[in-house]
């Protein structure tokens, strides 16, 4: 992949515009298809050199064209190749794809006649970026037959049936062991379930200049340090502890203090200079018994908080983990909207019936506020957006950030970070083991530490999600929330 395209995500519509712009700049589109198909053939031979038969499934568009190029290249290498086409290829194909078909000099059998055998390797060139509706019954049946047989599938551009914009399945989809895509990742490779159906992803440079890809691409990004390392490098770990930021984490009552302490420990490990747990009187003793480097302060009600907030050195706040759902959470959060705040868990749920109040306050308060909902919490705060099936998870997070005027971390195995200004990134470095009790509390603490150190909300959130994922990878498969805290890698 071209290095400058490493973190760029291209939607199918943008890819079509890129193809057009490439053709208008004089680039030979058939040459691009040839490079695409040859890259697929090379990958197939490298990955599965011992297949008894390469079964190439060709669709009615340019994805199918890539398939015919790959089939010809495999046959030229002496491999046993069988081609199956959806519909009548002579009638359906035009342009480059038809030219590629005519260069294939073997038989083309109807897709429905395919009987997969063990020893087959399937090259899926049915549908790629041009999938525009649910798959027809005949294709669904073939996909189910192949998935059930368990033969390896290598997908060209996208596993057929996966929507390249949303990652959603259009009735059925191949579960590919590998996907070979071109120039840049597509959102459907990163968003679930598309991510798990794509298998190992290989991004091949087929020669479209990076400037054309960048010019036509929108702002959707993969979450990598390139997005926030500038902001991170301004933080100097050797500076005075107050300048490294003072983070406050609110504790719940006596029965629910662990989550706040986990957030606080994560905040300290992630670089906050000072961390204080703000605890109700009822939980002071139990918190005091378990805190060492983290400080403790009694905060019972609005007045206590209002008084304490006169201290402008309090840099950022985490409200939500174990806090308890109710008006007290709302009152505290509304008081903090003009500061740097991570609103998590119960802090989010508390606003289910009072969301406009929160959003109106956030619209006028000039704070740096990050909300970190998982799917259920997201649906409580943004029910209309959550229900809109036309939107991808990326667009849902963007819409939520827009109406709430906050940075949204829409959590899941495919966490999306969206800024109120439209910036958006999809995270991909989190291992599945990260879905463990207390993991969200740790994330809130890391993001809080970044806010306390002065990072802007979007960058603080994106860096937090990335470090959380990296900590998960370092902690390994048996991780617990505690080992996650001790595995947080340095920032930058
Ligand atoms: N620059 C690049 O990245 C290059 C990519 N290449 C490959 O081209 C495809 C995209 O090709 P495109 O022709 O735009 O789209 P597809 O081949 O994926 O599919 C379009 C055809 O499929 C029909 N279609 C769509 N959905 C369905 C469905 N559910 N059921 C039946 N038929 C469907 C569609 O028919 P319409 O009636 O909607 O027009 C089209 O006939 C990309 O993925 C790459 O693999 C180039 O080869 C190299 C450059
Ligand atoms: K495909």
TrEMBL record:
GO biological process terms, semicolon-separated: metabolite repair; nicotinamide nucleotide metabolic process
Sites where the protein binds K(+): 63, 124, 160
Domain spans labelled YjeF N-terminal: 15-214
EC number(s) per entry: 4.2.1.136, 5.1.99.6
PROSITE patterns: YJEF_C_2 (PS01050), YJEF_C_3 (PS51383), YJEF_N (PS51385)
Binding site for (6S)-NADPHX: 62-66, 128-134, 157, 259, 322, 374, 441
Chain sites annotated for binding AMP: 411-415, 440
Keyword NAD: yes
The UniProt record lists the keyword Nucleotide-binding: yes
A Pfam family assignment: YjeF_N
Enzymatic reactions: (6S)-NADHX + ADP = AMP + phosphate + NADH + H(+); (6S)-NADPHX + ADP = AMP + phosphate + NADPH + H(+); (6R)-NADHX = (6S)-NADHX; (6R)-NADPHX = (6S)-NADPHX
Recorded superkingdom: Bacteria
Cofactors required: K(+); Mg(2+)
Domain YjeF C-terminal: start-end pairs: 224-492
Molecular function GO terms recorded: ADP-dependent NAD(P)H-hydrate dehydratase activity; ATP binding; metal ion binding; NAD(P)HX epimerase activity
Gene3D superfamilies: 3.40.1190.20, YjeF N-terminal domain
Cofactor note as given: Binds 1 potassium ion per subunit.
Function field: Catalyzes the dehydration of the S-form of NAD(P)HX at the expense of ADP, which is converted to AMP. Together with NAD(P)HX epimerase, which catalyzes the epimerization of the S- and R-forms, the enzyme allows the repair of both epimers of NAD(P)HX, a damaged form of NAD(P)H that is a result of enzymatic or heat-dependent hydration.
Listed PANTHER family: ATP-DEPENDENT (S)-NAD(P)H-HYDRATE DEHYDRATASE (PTHR12592:SF0), ATP-DEPENDENT (S)-NAD(P)H-HYDRATE DEHYDRATASE FAMILY MEMBER (PTHR12592)
Recorded family membership: In the C-terminal section; belongs to the NnrD/CARKD family.
Quaternary structure (record): Homotetramer.
Record's protein name: Bifunctional NAD(P)H-hydrate repair enzyme
């Amino acid at each position: 992949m071209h290095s400058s395209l490493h973190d760029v995500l291209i939607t199918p519509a943008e890819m079509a515009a890129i193809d057009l712009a490439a053709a208008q700049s004089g680039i030979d589109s058939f040459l691009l298809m040839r490079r695409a198909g040859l890259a697929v053939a090379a990958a197939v031979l490298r990955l599965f050199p011992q297949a008894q038969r390469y079964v190439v499934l060709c669709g009615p568009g340019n994805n199918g064209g890539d398939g015919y190029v790959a089939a010809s290249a495999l046959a030229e290498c002496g491999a046993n190749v069988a081609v199956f086409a959806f519909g009548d290829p002579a009638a359906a194909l035009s342009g480059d794809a038809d030219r590629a078909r005519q260069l294939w000099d073997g038989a083309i059998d109807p897709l429905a006649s395919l009987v997969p055998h063990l020893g087959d390797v399937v090259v899926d060139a049915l549908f790629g970026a041009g999938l525009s509706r649910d798959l027809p019954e005949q294709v669904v049946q073939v996909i189910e037959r192949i998935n059930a047989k368990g033969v390896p599938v290598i997908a060209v551009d996208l596993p057929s049936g996966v929507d390249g914009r949303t990652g959603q399945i259009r009735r059925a989809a191949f579960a590919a062991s590998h996907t070979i895509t071109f120039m840049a990742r597509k959102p459907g490779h990163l968003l679930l379930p598309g991510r798990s159906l794509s298998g190992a992803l290989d991004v091949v440079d087929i020669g479209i200049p990076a400037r054309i890809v960048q010019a036509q691409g929108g702002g959707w990004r993969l979450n990598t340090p390139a997005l926030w390392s500038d902001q991170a490098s301004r933080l100097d770990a050797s500076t005075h502890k107050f300048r490294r930021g003072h983070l406050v984490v609110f504790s719940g009552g006596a029965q629910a203090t662990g989550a706040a302490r986990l957030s606080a420990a994560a905040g300290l490990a992630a670089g906050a200079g000072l961390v204080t747990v703000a605890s109700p009187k009822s939980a002071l003793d139990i918190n005091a018994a378990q805190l060492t480097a983290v400080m403790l302060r009694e905060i019972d009600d609005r007045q206590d908080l209002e008084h304490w907030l006169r201290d402008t050195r309090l840099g950022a706040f985490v409200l939500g983990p174990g806090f308890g759902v109710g008006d007290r959470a709302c009152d505290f959060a509304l008081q903090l909207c003009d500061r740097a705040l991570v609103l998590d868990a119960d802090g989010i749920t508390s606003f289910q019936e009072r969301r406009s109040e929160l959003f109106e306050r956030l619209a006028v308060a000039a704070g740096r506020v990050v909300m970190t909902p998982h799917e259920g919490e997201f649906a409580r705060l943004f029910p209309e957006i959550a229900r809109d099936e036309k939107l991808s998870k990326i667009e849902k997070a963007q819409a939520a950030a827009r109406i709430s005027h906050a940075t949204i971390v829409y959590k899941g195995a495919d966490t999306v970070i969206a800024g109120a200004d439209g910036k958006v990134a999809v995270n991909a470095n989190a291992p599945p083991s990260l879905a463990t009790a207390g993991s969200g509390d740790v994330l809130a603490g890391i993001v809080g530490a970044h806010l306390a150190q002065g990072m802007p909300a979007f960058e603080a959130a994106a860096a937090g999600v990335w470090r959380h994922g990296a900590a998960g990878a370092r902690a390994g498969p048996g991780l617990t929330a505690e080992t996650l805290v001790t595995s947080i890698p340095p920032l930058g």
